[in-house]
Design a protein that fits this description.
alpha+beta; 19% helix; 10 strands; single chain; 174 residues; 5 helices
Length: 174
C-alpha cells in the first residue's frame, strides 16, 4: 500500500509520499512527536484506490476510487522550513483518516471542504498526475489537502466532524 498525496505548503501543492506507518485510523489518538517543536494540521480529503492503473486520463479517474473520507494531514513545519520534506510529512501517524464512505454519498455532504479542494486541485487531476509517475494499485490511499496553510495544534485538542449524528472524523491530540 502506498500513501500519496498533494500537500499544500507555502502557497502551492507539492506531491508527497508517506510510509504505510503514516496511516492513523479513526478514533486513535495522534501523539505529538518529540523530535518536532512545531506540528501543524491541514484538513484533507482522502480517496481509496480500487483498481490497478497507470497513466490514467482525468476523464477516467472516477473509475479508480471506491471510497472517500475526511482526513487530517499532520506536518512537522519546523522540518519543512529546513527543507526536509520527507521527514516532515512521512512520519508515523501523519495522516488521520475518518470513516470511509461511498463517493456518491460523500459528495452530497454539506461541508464545503470538497468544493474548496476541487476548485484548487481537482481529484481527477490528482489521480492523473500521480498515475503518470507511479502505478496505482488496489488499496493505495490518495489525499489532497485543503488549499490553506496548515494550522498549529496543541495537546488535548480534538478534531471532530459529524453529519446527522454519525462521526465522520475524530482525532484527539496527545
Amino acid at each position: 500500500m502506498k500513501i500519496i498525496g498533494f500537500t499544500y505548503y507555502e502557497g502551492q501543492y507539492r506531491m508527497a509520499v508517506k510510509s504505510d506507518s503514516s496511516l492513523l485510523n479513526q478514533g486513535k489518538p495522534f501523539f505529538l512527536p518529540d523530535w518536532s517543536e512545531d506540528v501543524h494540521a491541514n484538513l484533507c480529503i482522502v480517496l481509496r484506490v480500487c483498481r490497478l492503473g497507470r497513466s490514467i486520463e482525468p476523464k477516467f479517474a472516477v473509475r479508480y476510487y471506491d471510497a472517500m473520507a475526511y482526513g487530517i494531514d499532520f506536518q512537522a513545519t519546523d522540518w519543512l522550513k529546513q527543507g526536509k520534506m520527507t521527514e516532515a510529512l512521512a512520519f508515523d501517524s501523519a495522516l488521520c483518516v475518518g470513516e470511509w464512505m461511498l463517493p456518491a454519498i460523500f459528495k452530497t455532504m454539506p461541508y464545503p471542504l470538497l468544493n474548496e479542494i476541487e476548485q484548487a486541485f481537482p481529484i481527477e487531476r490528482a489521480i492523473a498526475d500521480i498515475s503518470h509517475i507511479m502505478t496505482l494499485r488496489m488499496g493505495d490511499i490518495l489525499y489532497i489537502d485543503l488549499p490553506k496553510e496548515a494550522q498549529p495544534i496543541q495537546r488535548e485538542e480534538v478534531f471532530e466532524y459529524e453529519y446527522n449524528g454519525q462521526p465522520l472524523l475524530y482525532c484527539r491530540i496527545k
